[in-house]
């Protein structure tokens, strides 16, 4: 088959370019996760404190990110960050890291709060009875148990972040989908069915990354139920 | 912030608002139907179909809606299957949402205690009767929290429809920004529009979750 659509993948550097796009996607997701998980852990711990002002503020922060769709968050960052901070040469990829990072922080703060609160009360009381101070209690009793409890939800959040990176093309980041579109357009006349194969490969890329992660999360969650 | 700009854009946004509501409603309704069927096929381990349902759930849940839409809208026409953008949107939302809803229902069905199912069998109920009189009434109540979360999630996902040029809320805002360069105003209207849909809805769903807790058996 001289003009089978699948050959579009092996034309020139197409496959290498697609993999390069995948790399952009991966590092943005990774950075957003690092930023979001660190900030989210802090916010989640703060949300277990009794201070009403702090709790309300953080709750509003969470609800904002829950209500606004991620596409809209991305555009908010794209249009507002340059205006607010008077920078106009920040590349779209960094905007995306900021938007996704703040969103992950909001979601993760809720996971952390839930996990910290679900550590049994007698654990906390035993710690106090041993004469631990608040920091020791947090570091040696609450945190290790909470980390284990929150792991499945955190992995699921990571799979969501990876899927959400598909939106990067909307703010013209050269991610895997954007490069895929360029390849499709450049080869449209020679490979009429190329569109099917290029999107097919991208579809498989996402599945190959996300499927093992969600299976892992499922297995961990099932173990915890026992 | 120019309020006149906002005021002038409101008729456009009203159209987008209606479309977002309509697409969400049809997509969610379809997703609920697909979800219930798929989860029952899996729950009763129906040969072949049960396994296929499992595969469908994994594929739909582990790939982004955007790529699913691109497939429907750009790749399928090459194979001779051509749909309008709005139809692609609804099909995409049902495909994605069906899998999420199926997971929600499955969680609820698995929460129905095994003694209930075994008692049903002991009474001589067949598969259909077990589903209709034992598993569904209790399982549905248990799955409400997960389904409620999915409803909110799917409404937000309709914003991705803007990539295939369906003039829903997000697409309307992006179009207006492209035409008039008033990003602050239009983004504000956009966020407020989503808040108008999602805040009352999430309050309603929280109420519903509390309400159906009475329906769970035994605890």
Automatic annotation (TrEMBL), chain A:
Record's Pfam families? BPD_transp_1 (PF00528)
Where in the numbering of this chain does the ABC transmembrane type-1 domain appear?
22-214
* CDD domains associated with the record: TM_PBP2
Tagged with keyword Glycosyltransferase: no
Task: Enumerate the UniProt keywords alphabetically.
Answer: Cell membrane, Membrane, Transmembrane, Transmembrane helix, Transport
- Which ranges does the record mark as transmembrane? 20-46, 58-81, 93-116, 196-213
In terms of InterPro entries, this protein maps to:
AA_ABC_transptr_permease_3TM, ArtM/GltK/GlnP/TcyL/YhdX-like, MetI-like, MetI-like_sf
One GO biological process term is:
amino acid transport
Q: Which SUPFAM superfamilies match?
A: MetI-like
User: Which GO MF terms are attached to this record?
Assistant: transmembrane transporter activity
Q: Taking the first listed entry, what is the main subcellular location of this protein, grouped into a coarse class?
A: membrane
Q: How does it sit in the membrane?
A: Multi-pass membrane protein
Q: According to the lineage, what is the superkingdom?
A: Bacteria
List, alphabetically, the GO terms of the cellular component aspect: ATP-binding cassette (ABC) transporter complex
Location in the cell reads: Cell membrane
Write out the similarity annotation: Belongs to the binding-protein-dependent transport system permease family.
**Can you name this protein?**
ABC superfamily ATP binding cassette transporter, membrane protein
Name the source organism: Limosilactobacillus ingluviei DSM 15946
Q: What is the lineage of its organism?
A: Bacteria, Bacillati, Bacillota, Bacilli, Lactobacillales
UniProtKB/TrEMBL annotation, chain B:
Membrane keyword on record: yes
UniProt keyword Transport, yes or no:
yes
A Pfam family hit: BPD_transp_1
* Location(s) in or outside the cell: Cell membrane
> In its UniProt record, which GO terms are filed under biological process?
amino acid transport
Entries under InterPro entries matching the protein: AA_ABC_transptr_permease_3TM, ArtM/GltK/GlnP/TcyL/YhdX-like, MetI-like, MetI-like_sf
Which segments cross the bilayer? 20-44, 65-96, 130-153, 187-208
Report the GO molecular function annotations: transmembrane transporter activity
Please give, as recorded in its UniProt entry, the membrane topology of this protein: Multi-pass membrane protein
- Which residue intervals define the domain ABC transmembrane type-1 in the entry? 17-209
Lineage, top-rank taxon, reads Bacteria
Cellular component annotations (GO), alphabetically ordered: ATP-binding cassette (ABC) transporter complex
**Coiled-coil residue spans:** none
List the keywords (alphabetical).
Answer: Amino-acid transport, Cell membrane, Membrane, Transmembrane, Transmembrane helix, Transport
Cite the NCBIfam families for this sequence.
HEQRo_perm_3TM
Give the protein family.
Belongs to the binding-protein-dependent transport system permease family. HisMQ subfamily.
Name assigned to this protein = ABC transporter, permease protein
Look up and give the organism this protein is from: Limosilactobacillus ingluviei DSM 15946
């Amino acid at each position: 088959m001289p003009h089978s659509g699948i050959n579009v993948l092996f034309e020139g550097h197409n496959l290498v370019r697609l993999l390069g796009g995948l790399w952009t996607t991966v590092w943005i997701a990774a950075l957003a996760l690092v930023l979001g998980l660190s900030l989210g852990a802090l916010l989640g711990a703060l949300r277990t404190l009794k201070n009403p002002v702090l709790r309300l503020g953080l709750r509003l922060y969470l609800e904002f990110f829950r209500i606004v769709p991620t596409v809209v968050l991305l555009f908010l960052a794209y249009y507002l960050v340059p205006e607010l901070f008077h920078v106009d040469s920040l590349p779209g990829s960094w905007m995306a890291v900021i938007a996704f990072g703040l969103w992950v922080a909001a979601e993760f703060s809720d996971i952390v709060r839930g996990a910290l609160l679900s550590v049994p009360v007698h654990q906390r009381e035993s710690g106090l009875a041993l004469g631990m101070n608040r920091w020791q209690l947090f570091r040696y009793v609450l945190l290790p148990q909470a980390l284990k409890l929150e792991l499945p939800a955190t992995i699921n959040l990571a799979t969501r972040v990876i899927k959400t990176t598909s939106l990067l093309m909307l703010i013209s980041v050269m991610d895997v989908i954007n490069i895929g579109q360029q390849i499709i357009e450049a080869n449209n006349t020679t490979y009429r069915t190329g569109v099917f194969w290029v999107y097919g490969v991208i579809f498989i890329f996402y599945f190959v990354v996300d499927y093992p992660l969600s299976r892992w999360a499922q297995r961990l969650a099932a173990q915890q139920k026992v | 912030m120019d309020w006149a700009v906002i005021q002038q854009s409101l008729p456009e946004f009203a159209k987008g608002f209606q479309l977002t509501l309509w697409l969400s409603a049809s997509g969610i309704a379809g997703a609920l139907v697909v979800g219930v069927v798929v989860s029952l096929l899996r729950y009763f381990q129906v040969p072949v179909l049960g396994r296929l349902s499992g595969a469908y759930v994994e594929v739909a849940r582990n790939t982004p809606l955007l790529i699913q839409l691109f497939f429907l809208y750009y790749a399928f026409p090459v194979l001779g299957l051509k749909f309008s953008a709005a139809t692609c949107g609804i099909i995409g939302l049902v495909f994605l949402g069906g899998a999420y809803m199926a997971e929600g229902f499955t969680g609820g069905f698995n929460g129905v205690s095994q003694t209930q199912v075994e008692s049903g069998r002991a009474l001589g109920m067949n598969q259909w009767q077990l589903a209709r009189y034992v598993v569904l009434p209790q399982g549905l109540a248990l799955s409400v929290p997960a389904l409620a979360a999915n409803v909110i999630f799917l409404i937000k996902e309709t914003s991705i429809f803007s990539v295939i040029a369906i003039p829903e809320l997000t697409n309307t805002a992006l179009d207006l920004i492209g035409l008039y360069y008033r990003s602050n105003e239009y983004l504000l209207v956009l966020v407020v529009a989503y808040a108008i849909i999602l805040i009352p809805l999430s309050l309603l769903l929280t109420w519903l979750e509390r309400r159906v807790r009475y329906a769970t058996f035994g605890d």
